[in-house]
Specification:
6 helices; single chain; about 190 residues; three-stranded antiparallel sheet; 2 domains
Length: about 190
């Protein structure tokens, strides 16, 4: 009779704990297993060791992703980009940010001129004629691209579009400067230095 009362009380406690959403701990093959009931009273069996391993993997993945993001920040940046970023960090309004972008664009234009001169000094007359012809065509094309930027972005209205237009024009100039630098470095074998 005593055993029957203990069994009935145990069953009652077990059932009431399920109804309240508590868990029951059991040991199966020396592994901790939890039997849970969610809000809808659906039975869920959870292996605690497996959950711990999954959480550990999630943590490792998170650490790896954070490390990748940190490494992106440490990748090489051109001094003009660094100077522009510092300039932008010092200001607090869109007009001043645009001025930082304009200053960076002027620096990229100087880079273009620098690499045109370096290429002129390091190439034959025939090779430089190719570069000069390409640069002349690029100047015409970049002017047309800037006209498009002004017509469809800058003239759209609103300070955000002024900022976008300034950034787009800067990218146009920057890409040409980086292209000429790349051509120069390949030509002079400085790319491997």
């Amino acid at each position: 009779m005593k055993k029957l009362i203990i069994v009935l009380i145990s069953i009652f406690l077990l059932l009431s704990s399920f109804a309240l959403g508590f868990y029951v701990k059991k040991s199966v093959d020396d592994k901790k297993i939890f039997v849970l009931f969610n809000e809808k009273n659906n039975l869920q069996i959870v292996n605690k060791d497996l959950i711990r391993q999954i959480k550990n993997l999630e943590h490792q993945i998170s650490e790896y992703n954070n490390q990748k993001e940190d490494n992106k920040e440490e990748e090489y940046k051109h001094p003009i980009d660094i100077k522009e970023k510092k300039c932008i960090e010092k200001v607090d309004n869109a007009a001043d940010i645009r001025n930082c972008v304009y200053l960076a664009t002027e620096e990229w234009e100087k880079e273009i001129n620098k690499y045109i001169k370096l290429l002129e000094q390091s190439t034959t007359k025939e090779q430089f004629k190719l570069i000069k012809d390409s640069q002349d065509l690029w100047l015409i094309q970049s002017k047309k691209d800037n006209d498009i930027i002004n017509e469809f972005i800058f003239n759209h209205g609103g300070t955000i579009y002024y900022d976008i237009a300034a950034g787009d024009y800067e990218e146009l100039i920057k890409n040409r400067a980086e292209f000429l630098k790349w051509v120069y470095e390949i030509h002079t074998d400085k790319i491997y230095d």
